[in-house]
Structures are given as structure tokens and as C-alpha cells.
Write a structure and sequence with these properties.
Distance between the termini: 46 Å
Structural class: mainly alpha
Radius of gyration: 19 Å
Number of domains: 1
Oligomer: single chain
Order of helices and strands: HHHHHHHH
Length: 201
């Protein structure tokens, strides 16, 4: 537990950077969606296909829970691993998700109302969004460790320190995954029940 808290305290800059990238994506998606229309349309089409996949299920809410949970959890865990590629992919993931959220927020507020938008996002988003930012921050940290390991090849004095940092980081991966699974299952449960109920016509 001490190592976990120590690692999280040392990663505050990664959490802040991840949140800022996500917020930037929201701003771009809400205010400049025309410039990203191809990407947004492709993502919306993918979401529509996911929704259609549960349309004929006997228990739509249960199917919706598993769809949301699996989609978010698998992507969050995957993005941590992909962070090994110098932390680039978590940044794109954050920006892309922010773009989509910003677009949906703006479109919902314009077509319906601000309250409609809040009802559709806030109940589950208050857990889901921080969890995704958290996962991407962990991926960024992994990317930074990989870069430092490469640099240490030309600076042998840093090799021991980098190895220790890597070991400490690897030890927190299981607790991190547990935190993500618990958080995203709670978010999926809220979205498939309470948010679902709120958004019913």
C-alpha cells in the first residue's frame, strides 16, 4: 500500500497532463467539431453498431452493463500496455475520447437542453471519466519509464535507478487493474440502470 501511494504521489504530473489533454479534447469537440468530422462520424457509427448489437437481447439493461463494462475496462487496460510505446497512444486516446464527449455534450445541449446533457453524462461520468484519465496517466508513466530506460543505455549511472523504478511500477499494476475494474463496473452499473432510467422518454 505504501508503494502504491508513493507511486501515485510521484505521478501527479501524469494525472494533471492526462486531465488537461482530455479537457482539450472536450473543448475541440464542442467548439471545433467540423474540423474533426471524419473522426467523429466514424466513432459515432461504431457506437451505434455497439448499441444495435444489444437491441434484440432479452434483457437489454444487463446486456448494456456488460457491453459498457467490457468496452471501457478492456480499452483502459490495453491503453496502459500501449503506453509502453513512449506514451503516445494514451495521449491520442484521451484526445479522441475528449473530442467525442465534447461533440456529444454540445449536440445534446443544442438539440435537447443542458439538463438533458447533464442527465446523460454526469451520473456515470463522474466515475468513468476519472477512471479513464487514471488509466491513461498510468500508461504515460510506463512510456516515460521506457524512454528513461533507453536513455540509460548511454548513461550507465542511471541503470540501477531505472530498474528500481520499473520494479516499483510493475508492483502497482495489479492494484491499478483492480481499481479500474471496480470503478468501471460501478460506472457501467450506474449507466445501465440509473442513467438508462433518466434518459428513457
Amino acid at each position: 500500500m505504501n508503494n502504491l501511494m508513493r507511486q501515485f504521489a510521484g505521478m501527479k504530473h501524469y494525472f494533471i497532463a492526462s486531465a488537461l489533454v482530455f479537457i482539450t479534447g472536450i473543448i475541440l469537440g464542442a467548439g471545433f467539431s467540423d474540423q474533426f468530422q471524419t473522426y467523429i462520424e466514424a466513432q459515432m457509427k461504431g457506437l451505434e453498431q455497439l448499441s444495435q448489437s444489444i437491441a434484440n437481447k432479452p434483457n437489454q439493461q444487463w446486456a448494456l452493463f456488460w457491453l459498457i463494462f467490457w468496452n471501457n475496462t478492456s480499452k483502459s487496460i490495453l491503453i496502459i500496455g500501449l503506453g509502453a510505446f513512449f506514451g503516445v497512444l494514451p495521449l491520442f486516446f484521451l484526445l479522441g475520447n475528449g473530442l467525442l464527449l465534447g461533440y456529444v455534450m454540445a449536440a445534446s445541449a443544442q438539440k435537447e437542453s443542458l439538463l438533458y446533457m447533464v442527465k446523460g453524462i454526469l451520473p456515470h461520468g463522474i466515475i468513468e471519466i476519472p477512471a479513464i484519465i487514471f488509466a491513461c496517466a498510468i500508461g504515460l508513466r510506463l512510456g516515460a519509464l521506457v524512454i528513461r530506460s533507453i536513455i540509460s543505455v548511454i548513461s550507465p549511472a542511471r541503470v540501477t535507478k531505472n530498474k528500481e523504478d520499473f520494479r516499483a511500477f510493475l508492483k502497482i499494476l495489479l492494484p491499478v487493474i483492480i481499481i479500474l475494474v471496480v470503478s468501471l463496473s460501478a460506472a457501467a452499473l450506474i449507466e445501465s440502470t440509473f442513467t438508462y432510467w433518466l434518459m428513457k422518454p
